[in-house]
Amino acid sequence: MSFLIYGLKRLVATAPILLLVLVINFVLLRLAPGSPLDREAELPHALKVKLEAQYGLDQPLPVQFWIFLKNAAQGEFGQSYTYKNRSVREIIAEAFPVSARIGLLAMGLAVVLGCLVGALCARRPGGPLDQFLRVAMLTGKSVPPMVLAPLFVAIFAITLDLLPVAGWHGGATKALIGPICCLALYDVAAIGRLMRGSFLEVQGQKYITALRAKGVGEKRLQVRHILREASLPLVSYLGPALSSILIGTVIVEQVFNIPGLGRYLVNAAVNRDYTLTMGITTLAAVLLLVLNVFSDLVLAWIDPRIRLT
Amino acid sequence: MPISSRDLWFSLRLLSLVMLILPPPLRAQHASPKALHQAALSVFRLGNTREIDSIDPPFVDGGDANLVSRTLNEGLLVLDPATLRPQPGLAESWTVSSDGRRYAFTLRENLRWSDGSPLTIQDFIDAFKRNMHPETGAYYAAYMDVIEGAEAFRASGTAADWSKVAIRQLSLRELEIRLKEPAPYFLELLAQAIFLPQTVRTQKKAPGQGLPLSSGPFRLRSWALKDKMILEKNPYYHSATSVYLDEVQVFPIEDPKTAWNMYRAGELDWIRSLPASLIPKLRKMPDFHSSPILNTIYLRVNTKDLHLKDPRVRRAISMAIDRELLAEKVLREGQKAAYTFVAPGIEGYSAEPIISLDIPAARRLLDEAGYADRKKLPELAMIYPSNPMSERIGLALSAMLVRNLGVRMAPRNLERGVFYDRLNDLRYQIARSDWTLEYSDPRSSLEKFTSANVMNNLTGFADPTYDQLIATSSVEWDQEKRWKGFRRAEEILVGEQAALIPLFTNVSINLWKPYVKGMYDNPRLYYSIRHVRLERSTQASGAEKHRRSVQQEAKL
């Protein structure tokens, strides 16, 4: 029960932050030069006035923001300026599950592999395996997706012909492998490095020595005590990392031609599609805040010494 | 070590979470009857360059959208993809009066929408009314101004004005359209999306209202934004038996490298863009198709700018540009140097150069304009919307101007929205622009720069002689006189006044597989998927397999 109350309290406390983020997004978008109605041939004045009225762009900015807030509270962001006859809600409902599925699978893979690599490194710090994995992790963290993704396509899709080059294919496993691997690599390396340090720190704790002395089995010691304690920094890392990966990344989505939210966000911002940009950024902000609160709750659940106040 | 119930519970929860997000297992490798059926079908896979904003006729914009719109819908007329001459579409025949102002169309018998419901003349009239109505905000509604009474109705939208628009139903299958002035290109215009028939059911208003109907060779089966659009053969199309393909899949691919990778892996049959760096290499492939198109890349010059208001300065800049060097050495994609604004290719219209490279004369002009001391002319700025080709153009031009004229010009890359904003407010000096002829008549290009056309002009250029020439030539029915008038106007615009500086005409870049037959490359990018057929051996074997499996199933 205390978890629930604490969680609710924290969520309520994030409301002002969310509001601030939305205000900043809204103002920045309106300050950017150009408007969603700009085309090479300027629209006739009467039509522009009519369209501005239709989208509420003729209202003062605070009024526009208030209308946006009222609608956003009900999950409505209006019609997209770019994609005629499609509502922002409809677009998000189509694209978010795509990004989220790839993001979750990539993060799941990264957590499993990252923990494994971290644990392997921590077994014999400074040993040959540790040295090798550390170099590999540094490389993995330094290769950006814009290099990795085309390389992946060239090797696995074109040379070896094992996977499709691109496309969503209704979410078939084969179509997911490439984007997941390319997205996961960075986080595998990041989590591996994080876990290595964390394992090393926990292994050196006196209570671990005490538990060993008491005759606790090595397997139980590793899983119940060391992994549990060592995963605390991982949980803090996962909150923000998950929220950004769930929204999708434009490069991987473009190379693999995946209909995820990342591509929409970039196109919408460039085209000054106010409604679509606000819709996606609002979702991103909410996800970030909720996942942060959630990761705090998980921290407290793992380590009872963390007080919920 | 005994496993505690807590561990078990945790593992179960973890497992269920993983199961939830994991995709369905890989299908068994044997081909299902459905897959065999698919193989027997003639499926054409096309890589478009971007996602389409809309297929609703008044909002169809750009090459990708027009291609899909044309595949789904048909108007009174279509253009022959090989010759670009008007051919019967939903109208089987038409007559034109001797003064070129009255057009009468006879529709084919028994026309149907893609759900089988009758397609009538009223659907055309309703569509024209909707597209002209100011509330609709159709992108290319100005094309309809050539129809008598259309301009007034476009401004007011009142019923009284609609009654004066000269579009009449003569009989069950006959439609009459009267023009306010003779327009030799009117038949070509009718092939544009803005003249397509519509019903309320062709407009998707809200989610869940079903897919829009179509009037052409294919109909929409599904459309997942940024993923794939599937068009299937329309059984109610008047010439359905002459459509070879069963299905067209359209993939919006923004990254040309991805398109190329998908193409070479055999996942696409036709792609419409390529990474610029690969073009010289791929040119030798039999799949490579490129031809000059009626698209001119040019520089708009702000004639109100303090330093550029003198036509001599603008002419000097135009004459100092080595267009051959730009096209052949810098761009190297097959572009042709342009010395006129109207792209060459209009039958009978002169393509003789209006302006050409003449460095000594350019220097003299600049001296005469009071810039003998070049330091008096501050660095000019050339703006362009972000894209790699424009960047190369900008850098090459600034090098040419410094070398040939001693004038400094800095290319500035702007985001699309910012670029148009600057253009519309005349807050620029020189801007990279492009224009595609929409019908085979110089009017399509030259009308943009009359002083009354504030929405398109965007250079501040205003010349009464030019306006007069455009006005008189536009209503001239005699082609020789018409072309002469337009040519004189173009000489003022590009030569004497140099309000714009043509650079080069573009080329189309396509790759289609050798087994794709019936595709025609043409200068208007008017591709017709209706005529495409696939002649590959695997297609036949797929069909054969399907037939065998169907026979086996029948035996069982």
Walkthrough of the structure:
The complex is a heterodimer of chains A (309) and B (556). Chain A is built from 13 helices and no strands. With 309 residues, chain A is mainly α. Chain A has a domain at 94-302: MetI-like fold, CATH 1.10.3720.10. In chain A, helix 4 (88-123) packs antiparallel against helix 5 and helix 5 crosses helix 7 (173-203). The radius of gyration of chain A is 24 Å and the shape is globular. The mean pLDDT of chain A is 89. Residues 14-37 and 539-556 of chain B have low confidence and may be disordered. The termini of chain B are far apart. In chain B, strand 4 and strand 5 form a beta hairpin. Chain B is α+β, with helices and mostly antiparallel strands and 556 residues long. In chain B, strands 1, 8, 9, 10, 11, 12, 13, 14, 15, 16 and 17 form an eleven-stranded mixed sheet that branches. Chain B has a four-stranded antiparallel sheet with strand order 4-5-7-6, covered by helices on one side. Chain B has a two-stranded antiparallel ribbon with strand order 2-3. In chain B, helix 2 packs across helix 19 (537-555) and helix 10 runs antiparallel to helix 12. In chain B, 34% of the residues lie in helices and 19% in strands. Chain B contains 19 helices and 19 strands. The chains are: A mainly alpha (309), B alpha+beta (556). The interface between A and B is large, with 59 and 54 residues.
CATH homologous superfamily of one domain in chain A, by name?
Answer: MetI-like
State the name of the first-level CATH class of one domain in chain A. Answer: Mainly Alpha
Shape of chain A: globular
Give the rounded overall mean pLDDT of chain A: 89
